[in-house]
Amino acid sequence: MGTACPPLGLESLRVLDEQLRASSHKRHGLGAHRGRLNIQSGLDDGDAFDGGWCAAREDTRQWLQVDARRLTRFTGVVTQGLNSIWTYDWVTSYKVQVSNDSYEWAPSWNGSEEAVFPANKDPETPVLNLLPSPLVGRFLRINPQSWFPNGTVCLRAEVLGCPVPDPSDAHAWHPPPPAEPPLDFRHHNYQEMRKLMRRVSEECPDITRVYSIGHSSRGRRLYVMEISDNPGQHELGEPEFRYVAGMHGNEVLGRELLLNLMEFLCRRFRLGDARVARLVTGTRIHLLPSMNPDGYETAYRLPGIRGAHPVPIPVPVPVTVVTMPVPTPVPVPANPVPIPVPVLVPIPVPIPVTPVPIPVPILVTMVPLPVLFLVTPMPIPVPMPANPVPIPVPVLVPIPVPIPVTPVPIPVIPVPMMLIPVIPVPIPVPMVPIPVPTLLSRCPSWCPSQCPSQCSFW
């Protein structure tokens, strides 16, 4: 299988209508000149410009012929079905033949038998078939062998081929004339878009006009190009079309297609293309290539778009990660156990010199179950030192006992409690028995030993 060549130009109209012939056609609108890849049909059935070539008869002797006008190395064929909103017609297989004089034809061979190429399964999907080996000649025929059972012999085609020098033509060895400059198909930012529209307007000032419909949010003008035989004038009964592209900033293809359409219509009109001349003289076309230039400029500067300005890409800097030890949390039990902490709290207790009974109610509670202790008053002989020494006395809470008498140091026996306050008690030098009554907690004989809450204290 040979290397594929570029298209000859059936789709791009580089191949003229007179270079196309056919064995037959249903009507003029379905003639050989309509057998071009991707050509579109009109809305009405029987339109003068229909969507493909259709043979007048349904047999295997029908063909569509392309004249390359010089020796060409043919390498492949692309086919489609008929473009129509009313019928379904396409070719399912075909043969390819080549000739130098259009009288003697040589088929494409696949080994020892004539090659039959599979074609389409629907009207619109293009199918490419490369020839098993390139064929050299001036003319190429596509010979349908089968077609859609409910349709007829209809197709659109493109031929791949490369020109080769003709040994019998001395002029063919000379360099070919310069080809038509290609369309400027690349990404254009806002400034480049304005330059291209200005250039097209200067090339075809008699059929073009550039105007603005307003400004973007950042102050960029929204430029529109009008293409018509009388630009700037509304002609009664002439249809007008408006094409808008670039509604979103990253929709880059629409802008380029409209810019290329401007160039194409201008150049083909200057070359006298009949089809383009009908469009220009019979319609008024408005092309808005970028409705959102602000968004396009933002997307244009991002990396990855061909032609975009280089944007510095941040280089990641290695960062040293330091692992800090995390203290392991100590689990806390569901029911914490209270731990008694002795605290020395000095509590001044003024006591008179004479023995005075001092009631000191002390409620002793054990955790977790409350236990009541019966404390009986008893005289405590306390030696009186020269200097009073504070003696820690454990009590549950500080109990201020205001007595308007002279302070007497009284030692208090410590009792294990949650809080251990210190009560300095001054005591006179003589030994004095001091009864220390406390609030007794007694339960009646009918109460349980634990003295529940319903028992009174007295």
UniProtKB/TrEMBL annotation:
Lineage top rank: taxon: Eukaryota
State the Pfam families in the record.
F5_F8_type_C, Peptidase_M14
Which CDD domains does this one have?
FA58C
InterPro entries associated with the record:
CARBOXYPEPT_ZN_1, FA58C, Galactose-bd-like_sf, Peptidase_M14, Peptidase_M14_domain
GO CC entries: extracellular space
- What are the GO MF terms of this UniProt record? metallocarboxypeptidase activity; zinc ion binding
List each copy of the F5/8 type C domain by range: 3-162
Q: Which residues form the Peptidase M14 domain?
A: 186-297
Give the GO biological process terms: proteolysis
Q: What family does this belong to?
A: Belongs to the peptidase M14 family.
Q: Protein name, please?
A: Uncharacterized protein
